Amino acid sequence: MTRALILLHGTRMSRRQWRPYEQLLPGLPLVVRDLPGHGDRAGEEFTRDAALTTVEEAVDEARRLGDGKPVLAGHSLGGYLGAMWAAQHPHDLGALVLIGATADPAGPLTGLYRGFARLLPYVDPERMAAAMNLIFRRLGAKGEHAELLPDGTAYAALPAAWQLVIDECGPDLLREVPCPVWMVNGQLDQMRIHVRRFAAAAPDPHVVTVPRATHLMPATHPEQVAAVLREAVAKAG
User: Fold this and answer.
1) Strand order across the 30-33 sheet
2) Strand, helix or coil at 133?
3) Which of 38, 86, 95, 179 has the highest CB neighbour count under 10 A?
4) What is the pLDDT of residues 189-228, one digit of tens each?
């Protein structure tokens, strides 16, 4: 038996984001959950406690399915939540993988994201989703990755989710996390802007930059993401 791998999705996405990875990661026990307000939990309020409880439940399941401490990987919002949970349980993971989740919320992007969140109540979520999904496809999402792109139902949870990240998810979360921390970003991803701060905070950092990839990397560069995930599991502590 091998370690189990937990995969947490990003804002607006759902556990369906990771379905193609079942074929990309054969032999690895995978644990995927919808975060509050996303996927099958659309309409549920996104709160700090509900989000971290979801991570806790995923870790418990991973312990049952795999051998040794599980590996926790998250994209964007999922990565920040993974870092929050790891900071509270610093000795419970074999590795932590942050995908597109190394922008310091205290940095210059905060104002931009706050402004976008304030506009959301005045924008039709389905039109917004259609526009975002078109960008995904033009940047390289195809096949099953393109078919699984979400509709607009999760936009209601976005302001609360981003507020949690802004309030609590700085690089200091990693200071007491002793396991290997993989920081995986696309070369063109705005969310890698402070990767050096996160790497400096982590006791055992591993930085990976995927050429020509963006924040949408799990959908547009799945083979490269899967390769990092396999390596993180193989080298987990």
Assistant:
1) 30-33, 5-8, 71-75, 95-99, 181-186, 205-210
2) helix
3) 38
4) 989 999 999 999 999 999 999 999 999 899 899 999 999 9
